[in-house]
Each structure stands twice: as structure tokens, then as C-alpha cells.
Amino acid sequence: MTRGIGLAVAWFALIGCIVFLLAPLVVTVGVSLSPSPVFQLPQGEISWRWYERLGRLDGLLDSVLLSLQIAAFATAVSLVLGTMAAIAVVRGTFPGRETLATFLVSPLMLPGLVIGIAMLQCFRALGLRDALPSLLIAHVIVVLPFVMRTLTAGLSLFDFSLLDAARTLGLSYPKAVIRVMVPVLAPSFITGGLFGFLASLDNYPISIFLTDVYHRTLPIQLLQYLGESPDPTVAAVSTLIIAMTALLLIVGDRLVGLNRMAGV
Amino acid sequence: MEAHLDIAGVGKRFRQTVVLEDLSLAMRKGEFVSLLGPSGCGKTTLLRILAGLLSPDGGRLHLAGRDIGRLPPHRRNIGVVFQNYALFPHLTVFDNVAFGLRARGTPREEIAPRVRRLLDMVRLGPMASRAIAQLSGGQQQRVAMARALAVNPELILLDEPLSALDRKLRETMQVELRQLLRELGMTAVFVTHDQEEALALSDRIAVMNAGRIEQLATPAEIYARPASPFVLDFVGQSTALHGEVVEAGDGRLSVQTAYGVLRAQGHFAKRARVLVAVRPERIAPRPAPDAEWTGIDLPLAAQTFLGSRRLLHGHLGGGDRAIVELPAETEISGDMLPISWRITDTLVFPAPDVAE
Ligand SMILES: Nc1ncnc2c1ncn2[C@@H]1O[C@H](COP(=O)(O)OP(=O)(O)OP(=O)(O)O)[C@@H](O)[C@H]1O
Ligand SMILES: [Mg+2]
């Protein structure tokens, strides 16, 4: 009897969570398809007018491209740096490597705002005033922890004698890494890279300190639109982002398996 | 005749600990040599140095007339079967075996037939397209063999390749492995800490202890004529009694032990501390019948029944031990057994330091 009630509560909570998580997405997609110029769910009739407006929106395409470029760059750099750092942390015998490992994933735990302010001050102190390099560097810091986290997990299970085997079979060390370690760790690379990429694309609190008029990342641009002309164009953009994310996750799932991606 | 593999004066230390000490070993082409020794004596370290995965502090390495000491692993043409097999989990059985051929840029049309031939040799032909995770331990071991042999190496190194298998399977695999290597005329260094395995498979055994080779000889010689108390102890079982030489001359000795005076052969000074030993199957359950024999009265402690034979364990103190092997049907009564053996079967060593 009590067990039945417990189960019912659990089910209720689960459904509640799902609704709670999905509702904003559904509303966003709905609003983007509504002909009404205010935020409103479509009343019967569906319209693509906000999507048509996207092309004419000033600076939107630029910000999308900028964000994609930054995310791609930061992800690529993080994958290389993160792999090397993870190898050092997992294989090294130097003192303080635990601390180092925690330090390298710490940006995940710090408020973005803090990191943003810190980076701004740091860049200023170093005399770096250009928005683009600042953004690129800052986003490496956004992506790196994701890569570090999945790669240290992956590497701690990686059997390094595989590299020895590949070398005795005729590959030089660098080739052995590329032909054996990279494919074996592919799930970690894909997972870490994917989540890192999305985090960079999505980042607002750090970017906001580093942008200038010519370099606005997508989230910043969107927020500005929302402030200037709050019409459902923003919802249309969001819907496209949701679609892209879903696509990436599906690809990731095909390659790695969603469970494993969420797990590490 | 020039040695196929020549290891000369190789040493290795990690920080202060000396792991290999001025180690030399020469092997003929096609020879099967086991490195036998306790855990931590440096067997794997020596293999890694041979494979080029670890650089020695000094010494020279020659393989097939080539100085390989400075070559990286991928240019040495040495196959390695790793203790955990180190098979590539992302590749099929076929691709694992083909890995070395591809790494060397072997033409595509030569790869498939060669891989098939090797898989047939290790009886894995039908498994070519399996994933590694779908194989049993014994099958994985055979893939590792095939992969190492596929590139036709000058030398194959095997690091306890059978230790992960259960006893029954291990015995079958031993025979198979030996046959395969013999068919190919492959020179092999085989690491094991299982003395029976070493005795069963090897042309010669190098018994290692604390980074040195204590004895390098055929299995029969190692067993019958161990060069040191360590080898005596590590390979096979033995009765071993401490004593003091009380009479010496003409290569004949009398040794006073806690269980009486034993006669033996050897050249030792009077008063020298020695260890007198004999292998269990050399012992007869009776008093010494004539002057060619010598023996003691053995207080019995326990028996182990082994099917066709039985082992009797003596109840001795003070670092002495006794073990007698008899046919299973031998009747033993009482807790005292007179035992004796031929003087020519007696082994005498300078007594090892008390610390041992
Ligand atoms: N990288 C290393 N750093 C420090 N010491 C090491 C290192 N590798 C091995 N050793 C030490 O060298 C000694 C020999 O090791 P090795 O692995 O060669 O032993 P082994 O004979 O193969 O033993 P086992 O039968 O257990 O495999 C050991 O005492 C080990 O602790
Ligand atoms: Mg070892």
C-alpha cells in the first residue's frame, strides 16, 4: 500500500521533471511558428514569417558564423591540449597531479561571471585588447574542462601497452598514438568535444566581458535583439539551435551511444 | 657459429634500484630460451629492453648480425606477445593480425593470404571477423601469437603468455605454442615464473634472480645440476640439509648434519659450511645398502598423493627440508623412515648466507 503510493509519487515526479524540461522547448518551437508578433503560441494557424525574417536580420549570420568559428577553434585546441594534459595527469607520477586534474576541470564549477571578469582583467593586464583573440582564448577555457573530464576518464581505462604493441608491430610512437589511441579513445573525444562545443556555442557570461561591437557571439546578439525588438524571431533562432543540438546528439548517439555520453 | 641474438653486458637501474646487472645471453637461431625467475627479478624489464621499449643503461644488443641497441622498437623486427595480450579492441581478429603488415606497407594483395594462413595455423580461421571482446582467453592468446608472427620477426618475445589461462588449457597451449614456433624455426625468448612450463618447453633455461642469470643450461641440466641453492630451490623440489664438512679428500666429503653424517662428492675445505641436497625421486625408502649410498632416518610429517606417485614430507627444523617421491603403492608405516640415495646423486653447495 505505502509502496504503491511511493511508486505513484515517483512516477508523478518523473513526469513532472520531463514536462518541466520539455515545456520551454515546446513553447519556443510553438512561438516561432506563430504568426502573432508577440510571444504567443499559435492559435490554429502556422506561419514561417519569423524564419523568413531571419535572413534579413542585421548581423545575425555574422554572429552565428563567429560563434561557430570560436566553438570549432576552442574545441580543436582543447582536444589537443586536453589530451596531452590528461595523459600527464593519468600517466604522470609527479606530486600534485590530483590537484592539477581538479584544477583543470574547475572552470565547470566556477560561476562564468567570475571567470569572465577574471579573464577580462587578466587580458587587460597583459595588454590584450582585441576581442577575437580574447574570445578564442576564453572559450578554450570553457571547452577544456569538458574534454579533460571525459578524457581522463577514458584514459584511466586505456591500456598503454596497446601503444607498445603497435610500436613493436612497426609504427613509430606518434603514428601509434594516431592509429591506436585515437580510435580507441574516440568515444571520449566525441563526447568531450561535443559537449564542449555546445557549451562554447551557448556561453554568455564569459563572452559578454570580451565582445566588442564587431564581435558579438550568438547568445549575446540574441539577447540584444530581445532587448531591442522582442518579436518571435529569437524563438525561430532558438528553434534552429534546438534542432542543431538534437542533430549533434543523434550523431553522437550513433557514434558512441547516448548512455555512455551522459555517463562520462 | 655466430649467435643469432647476442645480449652483452646489459644493465638497468631505476633510480637507486638495480633491476638488471651486467646481463649477457647468447642464443642460436631457432632456439627457445625461457627466462625463469621469481616476480620482480627483471624478466619483463629485459624483454622491454630487447624490444626497444626501454633503454638499457649500458651493454650491447645484436640480432641477426645487426646492432639493434639504438634502433627504436618499430625498426627492430622483434615480435612481442604481451602478458595481457594488448590486442587492439577496436579492430577485428583479422585486422589485429594484419596490423603489423599494414604498418610496414605490405601490398594489400599479400596481406589477406598471409593473415589467413596465420589464423589457420593458430586454428582461428573461422573467427577472422570477430571482435576481440568476443574471444575466450585462449583464443585471445592465439590472436596475440598470430599478430606477433605475422610480420615474420627475427625474434619473438613472450611475456608469460599463458599465465592468464587455467591449468588445463595452459598445458594444451604450451604444446601448441612450442610446435608452432618450431615449425616456423622461430627464435624465442619466453618469460615465465612457472618452472614446470620452463622445463617442458625450453631448449635452454636462464634462471634469473635479482637481475642476474644464475644459470643458463638445458632443462635436464638445470634440474640435475643446479648451479646454486637458489636454482635448486626454484626449479623442482629437493631435500636440503645444512652441515659442516668434517672430512675432505680425493673429492670425497663427509658432512655432519643435524640428522647424522652424510657422504658426498665435492671439493670443500674441512670445517666449511655446506648445503647437501638431493632430488626427491633419487631417494629410496631404505637404509643405505652399501658404500655407494648415504642416508638418514627421516621423521615423517605428511604425505601428498599425486595419482601415480606420492610425496613424503619430512619434519625437519633449522632451515632443513626433506621430500621423498615414491610410487603410490609403496607401503609406509611408522613416523620414522630410513632413506638413502647414491653419493653420485648428492648435490653440495657452499651454505648460503644465514640471511636467506
Ligand atoms: N618503471 C619502473 N620504475 C621503477 N621500478 C621499476 C619500473 N619497472 C620495473 N621496476 C622494478 O624493477 C623490478 C623488475 O621488474 P620486472 O617487471 O622486470 O619484473 P618481472 O621479473 O617481470 O616480475 P613479474 O614476474 O612480477 O612480472 C621490480 O622490482 C620492479 O619494481
Ligand atoms: Mg613481468
Largest sheet of chain A: none
Shape of chain B: elongated
The outline of chain A comes out as globular
Q: What is the number of helical segments of chain A per DSSP (H or I, 4+ residues)?
A: 12
Q: What's the architecture of the largest domain in chain B in CATH terms?
A: 3-Layer(aba) Sandwich
Contiguous uncertain segments of 5+ residues of chain A: none
- Alpha-beta content class of chain A: mainly alpha
Instruction: Work out the number of β strands of chain B.
Output: 19
The CATH superfamily of the domain at 60-215 in chain A is identified as MetI-like
Mean pLDDT of chain A: 87
- CATH topology type of the domain at 60-215 in chain A: MetI-like fold
Total count of strands of chain A: 0
Task: Please give a handful of descriptors for the protein shown.
heterodimer, A: 264 residues, mainly alpha, MetI-like fold, B: 356 residues, Rossmann fold, OB fold (Dihydrolipoamide Acetyltransferase, E2P), 2 domains, 6-stranded mixed β-sheet, 5-stranded antiparallel β-sheet, 8 helices, elongated, binds adenosine-5'-triphosphate, cell inner membrane (chain A), membrane (chain A), transport (chain A), transmembrane (chain A)
Description:
The complex is a heterodimer of chains A (264) and B (356). Chain A has 264 residues and is mostly helical. Chain A has a domain at 60-215: MetI-like (MetI-like fold, Orthogonal Bundle). Helices cover 75% and strands 0% of the residues of chain A. Chain A has helices at residues 2-32, 49-56, 60-91, 97-105, 112-126, 131-156, 161-168, 173-184, 186-202, 218-228, 233-255, 258-263. The longest helix of chain A has 32 residues, at 60-91. The mean pLDDT of chain A is 87. Chain B folds into 2 domains: 5-232, P-loop containing nucleotide triphosphate hydrolases (Rossmann fold); 237-350, Nucleic acid-binding proteins (OB fold (Dihydrolipoamide Acetyltransferase, E2P)), CATH 2.40.50.140. The mean pLDDT of chain B is 90. The radius of gyration of chain B is 24 Å and the shape is elongated. By secondary structure, chain B is α+β, with helices and mostly antiparallel strands. The A-B interface holds A 159, 161-162, 164-173, 175, 179-180, 183-184, 186 and B 48, 51-53, 72-74, 76, 78-80, 82, 84, 86-90, 99-100, 103-104, 147-148, 151. The structure holds adenosine-5'-triphosphate and magnesium ion. Adenosine-5'-triphosphate is lined by residues 14, 19, 37, 39-45, 193 of chain B.
